[in-house]
Design a protein that fits this description.
The complex is a heterodimer.
Chain A (H helix, E strand, L loop, with lengths): L6 H22 L5 H5 L1 H11 L14 E4 L5 H11 L39 H14 L6 E6 L6 H12 L5 E7 L2 E2 L2 E2 H4 L5 H7 L3 E6 L3 H13 L4 E6 L22 H16 L3
Parallel strand pairs in A: 1-2, 2-3, 3-7, 6-7
Antiparallel strand pairs in A: 4-5
Helix pairs in contact in A: 1-3, 1-4, 1-10, 3-4, 3-9
Chain B lengths: L3 H15 L3 E5 L9 H6 L4 E3 L4 H13 L3 E5 L10 H9 L6 E4 L18 H6 L5 E3 L4 H13 L4 E4 L19 E4 L3 E6 L4 H11 L2 E4 L2 E3 L3 H10 E11 L4 H12 L3 E7 L8 H7 L4 H9 L3
Parallel strand pairs in B: 1-2, 1-3, 3-4, 4-6, 5-6, 8-9, 8-11, 11-12
Antiparallel strand pairs in B: 5-10, 7-9
Helix pairs in contact in B: 1-6, 3-4, 7-11, 8-9
Classes of the chains: A alpha/beta, B alpha/beta.
Bound molecules: thiamine diphosphate and magnesium ion.
Amino acid sequence: MKKLDSIKDLKLMANTIRQDIIRMLARAGSGHSAGPLGMADVFTALYFNVLKHDPKKPLASNRDRLILSNGHICPVRYAAMARAGYFPVKELSTLRKYRSRLQGHPSRRNFPPLEAATGSLGQGVCIAVGMALAAKLDKKKHFICCITSDGEHDEGSTWEAVNAAGKYKLDNLIFILDRNHIQICGFTKNVWPLEPLKAKYKAFNWNVIVINGHDFRQILDAVKKAKKSKKPIIIIANVIPGKGVSFMENKYEWHGKAPDEKQAEQALSELIQERAKIR
Amino acid sequence: MKSTRDGYGEMIVELAKKNKSIVALSADLTPSVRLENFKKKFPERFFQCGVAEANMIGMAAGLALDGKIPFVSSFAVFVPNRCLDHIRQSVCYTDANVKIVSTHAGVITGPDGATHQALEDIAVMRALPNMKVVVPCDFDQAKKAVKAITKTKGPVYVRLTRPKTPGLPKQSFKIGKANVLRKGKDVTIIACGPIVYEALEAGKKVNATVINCHTLDPIDKATIVKYAKKSKKIVTIEDHQIRGGLGGAIAELLGENHPVKLKRIGADGFGESGSPEELKKKFGLTVSNITRTCRLKK
Ligand SMILES: Cc1ncc(C[n+]2csc(CCOP(=O)(O)OP(=O)(O)O)c2C)c(N)n1
Ligand SMILES: [Mg+2]
């Protein structure tokens, strides 16, 4: 695995991934923009620092498992995987196209390193619990890391998974919450309020860490701490949906929309300007 | 061209102006299922349920059991499919007056991929006692269907679709009464949903009878058997798994009442990302494949 140790290199990589996301979505002509841009820093930290994985041996039995339960933000995962060396970067342009491995929502049938099929919300979280149990049975030391979203916490099945992990004391399970405060119909607080989220997780016998999901130091520290947790743990990553593109930031209207050609140009020019400031 | 989901969005607003019992529920998909206007016009009768479909079905059942006419809408993969047991027990078993009107059925949903393309919903809903199943072929028929199901008491599932699709010649709509769109010789093509358009085009080419079987349950036994008796062969076509849907229903009906040569066209497996046209081709849901199938000697 290509490990990036400096914060500057991580920031540069996240910027590259954000540009990839814009290009992929513009090429696809449909898909989700806000979620992937918001989670670019977390995915960069995972694939380029804290996850144990090897793009040359993508199915090695001791790899950390990464499940993307809010499957619709898969462009960020695809871009991070391409940059980490899982497949050629130019394949990103096949996103959502017929016969592509890069399905509109992650599909293990099409591309096994994606670990699971997700897209229907509230299912990846349950699969993650199952994988954590399997690792326990086999006395394996790898971690199961599951990305989930705030909107996904509307689902009863998400809380069933949370309860199950508490019951089985799954200290090898780490959730990272894409807490961007939006979903399709608006801001989460108006559509389906979730707070007090931290207290809810504590009540389900989990540990909780709250971070700024755009601060690499905080992301890296949180995952390192999480790997030492004696209970299942959730890292609540507060992130800005659409991060890096001014006209998408905090706009729920960009949940499920791809930029057109002009919008993509504007977005890319903003990201390129931002890149010049990274140090 | 307009979509069937647009027909729903228009008609429910029209009906709700007069019928104060109508309420609508959405699970964080209000714009996609075309309930945005309903929500704006009747905010007190609209319930945002969050991304929590199973609970939404129960809420609808409760509303129905105390006199409301709830319309519940999501993508067809989530409602009905994700909520089968809730629909079975809370809605069908008690005969609650719940109208499930879901969108994004079939491979024509497109680039979102297999997770978002409901291909089993007809089979699953058709198996439930007390559930009527309606699959409108175009915008106009979707409007008429929504109006008709409001007048019928009891559970109904209406299967709608995402993209804009061609309008067919104007048809009357009665639940359980299939529409014969053209009369031909030897072969009868039976279809439901927007693919009826392709069925009709193919029917013109091979001079086949074409039936729009928009109600799968209760199925129009009289019409189907009548035309089966005049045909040497039946071809069914649907944007749904080949097992358990329209083709399955016709096979059951004719197997018992008038066995005749039958070819079923439909999905056989999961969909994937792609354009509606590419995906229709993948499963032979095209005019050329229908005509070819009609012409096959076997
Ligand atoms: C079970 C299920 N119901 C509905 C949907 C449709 N859907 C896709 S994303 C989404 C919003 C979920 O909120 P969140 O993940 O927070 O969205 P984001 O932050 O990316 O905007 C919904 C309702 C789905 N994918 N799965
Ligand atoms: Mg969100």
